[in-house]
Amino acid sequence: MADPRDPDCLFCKIVDGAVPATVVRETERTLAFRDIHPQAPTHVLVVPKAHYPNAATLAAADPEVAAALLTEAAEVAVDERIAESGYRLIFNTGQGAGQTVFHAHVHVLGGEPFTEGLV
User: Fold this and answer.
1) In a 3-state reduction of DSSP, which class is residue 43?
2) What is the pLDDT of residues 53-109, one digit of tens each?
3) Active-site residue among 43, 51, 103, 105?
4) pTM over 0.85, yes/no
């Protein structure tokens, strides 16, 4: 099990309400909020409330919370009206992959066509 919170973690501080965020969804185990540097018209982060350093450690330690993260990402897409047009989910795991906040999270991006993508 992860530590419930890391006192130095930005996302833990957001979960605790110590740092403000524009929350769009909340469950017992997850919190979804708008990215402060959006890369698309819709850019929401979904995080587990418990601290896990990245998606790989989350998946290994608590598959149920990992599944809840994906479920909430899909619900965000519905709420943001991007589910039918399509959206992208991104997990950055590790500094070399672009992870800058070391608390597991998934980016939900959409609202415009993506010109580049992985097949």
Assistant:
1) strand
2) 999 999 999 999 999 999 999 999 999 999 999 999 999 999 999 999 999 999 999
3) 105
4) yes
Candidate CATH numbers 1.10.10.10, 3.30.428.10, 3.40.630.30, 3.50.50.60; the one for domain 10-87: 3.30.428.10
SS3 13: helix
Q: What is the DSSP string of 48-100?
A: ESS--SSHHHHHHH-HHHHHHHHHHHHHHHHHTT-TTT-EEEE---SGGGT--
105 belongs to the catalytic site: yes
* Bridge partners, residue 89, by sequence: 108
> 3-state DSSP: the chain helix, strand, coil percent, rounded to 5?
30, 20, 50
Q: Structure tokens of 57?
A: 């450690």
Kindly report the length of the chain: 119
d(CA 96, CA 60): 20
